[in-house]
Amino acid sequence: MANKNKNFNNFFNTNKFLGSFSSYLDIPYSKIDKECCFIGRSNVGKSSLLNAITKTKKLAKTSKTPGRTQSINVFEINNKINIIDLPGYGFAKVSKVMREKLIILIEDYIENRDKLSHVFLLIDAKVGIKNSDIDMLDFLNNCSKKFSIVLTKIDKISYNHTSFQKKSILSLMKNYRKTFQDIYLSETKKNKGINEIQKTIYGLS
Ligand SMILES: Nc1nc2c(ncn2[C@@H]2O[C@H](COP(=O)(O)OP(=O)(O)OP(=O)(O)O)[C@@H](O)[C@H]2O)c(=O)[nH]1
Ligand SMILES: [Mg+2]
Question: Ligand 1 in contact with 124 (CB < 6 A)?
């Protein structure tokens, strides 16, 4: 098992930040033909998850202040697969114009990026599913995009509460049978759940 983990870490250790883009159309052509992305409400832990997966502290910029990521950030992993860190949605404190701009950026990317094969939708375990998440789930369903859920920051709630959140999400997933793949639980500081997510991304590459 320890050996397997080491192999995944080696795979994800070779990584490069390609750049930040304000439209999917601006991402330069590359031979890497597989891609997955992290989406979710602002502050849910998307950039932190990317850092945990790549075992780097600062590959993706994280912040206590929601709304940190405002563009499409492309990270190349081992010349095999891209991981895309997207801006968060549903953040009340940014202007309505900015919110709409960001949601268009996210949805245009998801709908039109041909090499995108898997979406990881992150949900803060303490906050649970909000209407903006349901809108995103419906959008993914309408575009027939395969997705998994990552329940993040499980260190903030009890074991029982985590089980409750997981159960209620799985029940909601009955509405998304064709596109829902799996659910993961994560805690970036203690690396919980990271290996399982690495394994899935490795499998996509
Ligand atoms: N307790 C706890 N905090 C976490 C965890 N993961 C991330 N955080 C914290 O949550 C805050 C937001 O993390 P980010 O990774 O910047 O969140 P984001 O989803 O990229 O945010 P935006 O770019 O604003 O959409 C930071 O203060 C992180 O340290 C976790 O597993 N547990
Ligand atoms: Mg971010």
Answer: no
pTM of the predicted protein model: 0.95
Ligand 1 in reach of 70 Cβ (< 6 A): no
> In CATH, what class is 2-204?
alpha beta
Of 88-92, 100-104, 135-139, which range is least confident? 88-92
pLDDT in tens, 116-161: 999 999 999 999 999 999 999 999 999 999 999 999 999 999 999 9
Domain ranges of the chain: 2-204
Probe ligand 1: pick from 38, 41, 48, max atoms within 8 Å of CB? 48
CA dist 200 and 205 (Å) reads 9
Distance (Å) from CA 51 to ligand 2 centroid: 10
- Say which residue the tokens 């490069």 belong to: 16
Nearest CA to 152 out of 113, 119, 188 is that of 188
Angle at 141 between CA 174 and CA 161, to 5 degrees: 45
